[in-house]
């Protein structure tokens, strides 16, 4: 597995510090001896910028803007590529004329880089009403944190059933999909999120899909973290991916 550190934080005004996350997460990753299958899979770590993205399997941001550029570079020529996004927010609220942290998915859809029906949002719980309207208009499929809590296993089945139909699958994990009790080190604190165990459960099952090509993990901010809790959680998640 190749891990690509992507320390980009120019897509946000409220979460400066995310550029420090890749180095800190890798430090914590090196202290995890095995995943939950008792495996210590080897990995290579490289650094990259958005202008000349290097090939890799897991990308560590940085803010969520990097997902737009990764998808555009590696998936734009795939006829039926899809994306699963773990996030508290839909990231469909356009603020500027270029992709940013809060609207990168809006640009992917508007530029027809991904079909709206090939987007699956997981864990959302505080969308702006404009984003709700966008999701309805474009028939974007989503699973709220509330829905997941009520029936995690069945909804995971539903996510996998939808995603297995994509030719190529990209999985993006915004750390704020977690409740801030588990991941305080991020820019947008949204109560009522998933627990670390719930997210790991979803990831461990979804990673069994055969069409997954790349992952990213974004929005960890060491400047806002407490006892490196969020960085350690991020490293734990990545250990389950590699």
The largest sheet, given as strand count, sense and whether it forms a barrel, is: 8 strands, parallel
Tell me the number of helical segments per DSSP (H or I, 4 or more residues long). Answer: 8
Shape: globular
Query: Strand order of the main beta sheet, please?
Result: 2-1-3-8-7-4-5-6
Write down the Rg. 16 Å
Class derived from helix and strand content: alpha/beta
Helix amount, in percent?
Answer: 25-40%
End-to-end Cα distance, whole Å, is 6 Å
Number of strands: 8
Quaternary assembly: single chain
Instruction: Write the H/E string, N to C.
Output: EHEEHEHEHEHHEHEH
The average pLDDT value, as a whole number, equals 96
Strand portion: 15-25%
Report the uncertain regions: none
Could you walk me through the main structural features you see in this protein, from its secondary elements to its overall organization?
The chain has 242 residues and is an alpha/beta fold. 33% of the residues lie in helices and 17% in strands. It has eight helices and eight strands; from the N terminus they run βαββαβαβαβααβαβα. It has helices spanning 21-29, 65-75, 104-110, 129-138, 145-150, 152-163, 196-206, 229-241; strands at residues 2-6, 44-47, 58-61, 82-86, 119-124, 141-144, 169-174, 212-218. It has an eight-stranded parallel beta sheet, with helices on both faces. Strand 1, helix 1 (21-29) and strand 2 form a beta-alpha-beta unit. Helix 1 (21-29) packs across helix 8. The longest helix is centred in the C-terminal third of the chain and has 13 residues, at 229-241. It is globular. The model has no long low-confidence stretch (mean pLDDT 96).
């Amino acid at each position: 597995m190749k891990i690509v550190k992507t320390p980009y934080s120019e897509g946000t005004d409220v979460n400066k510090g995310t550029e420090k996350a890749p180095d800190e997460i890798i430090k914590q990753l090196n202290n995890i001896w095995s995943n939950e299958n008792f495996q210590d899979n080897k990995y290579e770590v490289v650094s990259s910028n958005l202008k000349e993205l290097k090939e890799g399997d897991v990308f560590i941001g940085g803010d969520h803007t990097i997902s737009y550029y990764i998808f555009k570079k590696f998936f734009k020529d795939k006829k039926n590529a899809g994306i699963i996004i773990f996030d508290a927010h839909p990231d469909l609220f356009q603020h500027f004329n270029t992709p940013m942290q809060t609207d990168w998915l809006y640009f992917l859809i508007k530029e027809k880089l991904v079909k709206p029906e090939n987007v699956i949002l997981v864990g959302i719980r505080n969308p702006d009403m404009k984003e709700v309207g966008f999701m309805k208009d474009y028939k974007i499929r989503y699973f709220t944190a509330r829905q997941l809590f009520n029936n995690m296993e069945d909804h995971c089945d539903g996510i996998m059933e939808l995603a297995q139909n994509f030719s190529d699958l990209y999985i993006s994990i915004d750390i704020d999909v977690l409740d801030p009790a588990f991941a305080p080190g991020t820019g947008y604190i949204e109560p009522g999120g998933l627990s670390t165990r719930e997210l790991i459960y979803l990831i461990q099952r979804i990673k069994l899909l055969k069409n997954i090509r790349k992952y990213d993990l974004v929005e960890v901010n060491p400047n806002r973290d407490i006892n490196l809790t969020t960085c350690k959680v991020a490293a734990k998640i990545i250990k389950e991916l590699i």
